[in-house]
Request: fold
Amino acid sequence: MAKVVCVLYDDPISGYPATYARDGLPKIDRYPGGQTVPTPQELDFQPGVLLGSISGELGLRKFLETHDHRLVVTSDKDGPHSVFERELTDADIVISQPFWPAYLTAERIAKAPKLKLAITAGIGSDHVDLQAASDRGITVAEVTYSNSISVSEHAVMMILALVRNYIPSYQWIVKGGWNIADCVARSYDVEGMHVGTVAAGRIGLAILRRLKPFDVHLHYFDRQRLPEALEKELNVVWHPTLEDMVKVCDVVTINAPLHPQTENLFNQALIAKMKRGAYIVNTARAKICNRDAIVQALESGQLAGYAGDVWFPQPPPNDHPWRTMPHHGMTPHISGTSLSAQARYAAGTREILECWFEGRPIRDEYLIVDKGRLAGAGAHSYSAGNVTGGSEEASKFKKTT
Ligand code: NDP
Reply:
């Protein structure tokens, strides 16, 4: 029998939904490139329902209890007196989502002697101290590709929203106004702009593909080049350094994982090298950008806008400066947890658990850390180390409703 502790975000304030806006989800069998969507032996949920909040339980309770495992679900994850920290002490498996991350710091790992498996229901396992997990022989796995396309759609939406000044224009309507000049004094067309992605992995490449029909000039920076034929098809220019790319871009979208090599990449010095009035859209991880440098650049006009859905820590303190900085289009961390994405990463979590309990190998592309080292997708995309420092600040957040 295993004890599984699953940390999920709270239900909607109006309660767990009884009905939904739509009756189902489009059926998708494969991701671009051919990887199959998760293939668990069974599913105990209807795709399209809310699975990522505590009452949704990722659709796992029946499966786990039928096999005599114990499931504890909580949203209380921060601080030494949290339910998570209490339940962790004899947990075998932890499941967490990047949207509401249960930070697995070295200190917490040390308090969990039985912990053997940490699953990220989604993509991005930087909330786990990967060095400490490697040292302790804990396997870390995530559901690679499950929400990459979801995020690419969100990033394109945010680029358009910032450049066209959508959010302030919408707010004028809600306030009862018809202030056309106020709206358009900061509104441009994306057509003809130079748009660059930091990393052209699953998300970065999907953004490039989606932006091509907008007749923009495409750029990318990545450690590895895309195949030549693909560069030609997208008419995308590779830059050998990040500096080289940001100097020519009107819009930069960030799509690299957070690990020691990418932490604080967008600091004051790099932002100063960008074109005046450039936009940054960051749906990857907040710590890739320097918090205060972003605020200063928006205030000075060096950046015309910043949007994204990723913060550090999560949830951010109520007085986090990104809530109130000018010209931002921030949302809570939602791009990878649409109902469509939830169905895929809940199925992927179940697939990983089925493999684990039956002693079958977890798909290589789902592995981040295994057998004491970076493995699978983790060996490609991460560097060893820890980026959870400062996560204890998440306990400063106070619910306002
Ligand atoms: P992929 O693994 O497909 O792509 C990551 C890319 O980043 C790879 O091409 C990798 O290069 C590149 N990369 C890694 N380190 C560097 C570096 N130092 N410099 C330049 N490029 C680098 O992942 P996805 O595209 O699916 O996801 C990317 C990230 O987006 C996730 O790790 C996560 O943090 C974030 N994300 C956010 C979500 C949200 O809801 N907001 C949801 C899903 C993901 P290489 O070819 O060398 O491996």
User: Anything to note?
Assistant: Residues 103 and 127 are 5 Å apart (CA to CA).
